[in-house]
């Protein structure tokens, strides 16, 4: 067993920890021009809407009592024009703000996806796929309302409240004081509700991630096969129901948190007109100045128009605090350390020859444990073949993954044509080194789309040639849809040997000078193995080849064979030289020979069915 890899899953943060407001606002910076336009539209709309109560006052106090029909008509038309103008401005600001919000969502999704593409392999071996999907889908999706409407709502409501309060003061400052007495209490209540919902939201998103991971694992082809063949389908359903039940509880709590307190605010605000009428009557009875009917009605109208933006503003504050939990989860991923990064000034090799050197190379998954590889010195001349053999856990696959930089050495270095692979650009390294693993991955797409993934500009002739070399063309051509046949989830419509040959054809299209082969034939039957081995031989011709050998009969002709034991080189030489030495390699050959005699073409059980990234 190899040492435990570091846990790359981001640790949960305190949901009460403040999120940098400047970082959130920076998401909107590229769209500040459009946001400025939205702000102008919002301000204009708010100012125009405030004019209606003043027009109403003139109608009630001047036009109607004075029987001035012309003035009455103009004032009525003014009120209609105000409504039309406000509606047009509202539609325009919604269009622009929604567009900006969706662009910000797009930027966030892309940034998280791009960051995950740069994460080391260790991150994905320690993180559930559903957790990653939940961050992109659920967390960013949950912020949609915030980024698409909150900013506009905030500006709109602030402008409306400010303009309305100014207008109310202009009508009568004493009634304005009565109207605003309870506002500080309302703000305090909304902040308490927001903090409560923020905590619940963090728990809800974590629960959604757990459910997403369960669905991804149990409803994949492999998961369904395992559940049914083990008779665990009902158990999986019960487990999912339990997780769903916990989500139901969190959703109800999230929606009901502070609901009664916010409802109380709405009731009090709705009752304010009665309070205004009562205060006006009380002032009159105490000998204070009388209010004109128009002033009183206009003031109540303004007070009522203050109700909607005030409640909305308080609700927006609650929503923003809730969304902080989502921003925190997204920023956790964006802040993950990238341990395998492209150099600032990458070296590009226009035509790599393919010489590979391991110079005192060491690697460990855990700095506190013994290294998986220790002091490896190897040279693989361009165009030659190296086979790496050894017992399970000796570090064979780990050694091979240092060449394409799926992991970086923790000591020494690995070079390609004399250049440290850590100094090479990712594109150069990807063009130079091809990897064919025994765990073949195919996309849920057609055969031709899977092949073109290696070389998008490949012609049909190039694809067919690669398929012929890989011994798979005749099979694909005989299918009803030929190269347009959809391979199914993870290629499950094809056999293991067919998938391997498709993977080999994909690598042939890329035409790399260096090949890393995590032997593709160890778990195949004899007939399929021979077909795949012919494809591997065709692929390896003229290339530098590093083969991880699980079945020693496939590497007898290698130019150099290295035996790893405990992360160190125990033996090296050709097949004949190592047999003559009668050491570890000879013992492994005898083991393989006895196994094949007893069990036909059985594969090494310790290496069968390994998931990608579970390295030895």
Automatic annotation (TrEMBL):
Keyword Cytoplasm: no
Residue ranges crossing the lipid bilayer per the database entry: 35-57, 69-96, 165-189, 262-280
PROSITE patterns reported in the protein's UniProt record: ABC_TM1F, ABC_TRANSPORTER_1, ABC_TRANSPORTER_2
Membrane topology type: Multi-pass membrane protein
Family annotation (Gene3D superfamilies): ABC transporter type 1, transmembrane domain, P-loop containing nucleotide triphosphate hydrolases
Chain ranges of the ABC transmembrane type-1 domain: 37-322
CDD domains on file: ABC_6TM_exporter_like
Alphabetized UniProt keyword annotations: ATP-binding, Membrane, Nucleotide-binding, Transmembrane, Transmembrane helix
Protein name per its UniProtKB record: ABC transporter ATP-binding protein/permease
Source species: Streptomyces yunnanensis
Upper lineage: Bacteria, Bacillati, Actinomycetota, Actinomycetes, Kitasatosporales
